[in-house]
Amino acid sequence: SIIPIKALDDNYIWLINETENNFAYVVDPGEANAVISTVTQLGLNLAGILITHHHWDHTQGISELQDFAGNNLPVYGPAHEQINGVNRPFSGNEHFKLEFLNDIVDVIAIPGHTSGHIGYHIQGALFCGDTLFSVGCGRLFEGTAKQMLYSLTELTKLADTTKVYCAHEYTLANIKFALAVEPNNQALIDYQQWVIQQLELGLPSLPSTIGLEKDINPFLRC
Fold it and tell me: Which helix (H) or strand (E) holds 53?
């Protein structure tokens, strides 16, 4: 199961758990308290942390979570960025197994938002941090437009059914821009109505899918 944990203003920390055990991993914990509260309520043990890039709203909770779960807690993250607490560094194109998940994790190098940004692909689920958003992409803080285009193109090679778990609830604002670009895109118009309904119910607009993003995301249609 994959559970969203709301954090800060608009962040999602994704909690990953194999349903037959009580161990969980979290992706980009910008806030420790929200994670501790969730795993405690669910009766889970924190088994590791996956980090996509170095920005504070994705890493701020690492130290406190290491104290909570024990200093030997595995913290996976980008090798080419300076992140305190990362003890399992990856550059991209690696494959590894998390101890308490049944599936292989594929690490993808997706620079652009930051220079060393990585993503994790796990059994049809993509955890892409701030590189790809639903109907948008991350700002170019460190990388180049060429790098971002390369990264987004790599992500479009994943199966259309791949679920996209990005790290912020930016979807509705992204749709406004996308409609200015493609005002007659019916798939985008329909998606806007669905997103509005989700948010009115207090539900996330995520995950999206690669197939859907190919139809509605202007940054995958350039």
Answer: none
Could you say which DSSP state residue 168 is in? B
Q: Residue 60 CB: number of other CB atoms within 10 A?
A: 17
Active site residues: 53, 55, 57-58, 113, 130, 168
Q: Model-level pTM greater than 0.85? A: yes
Residue-wise pLDDT tens digits, 128-170: 999 999 999 999 999 999 999 999 999 999 999 999 999 999 9
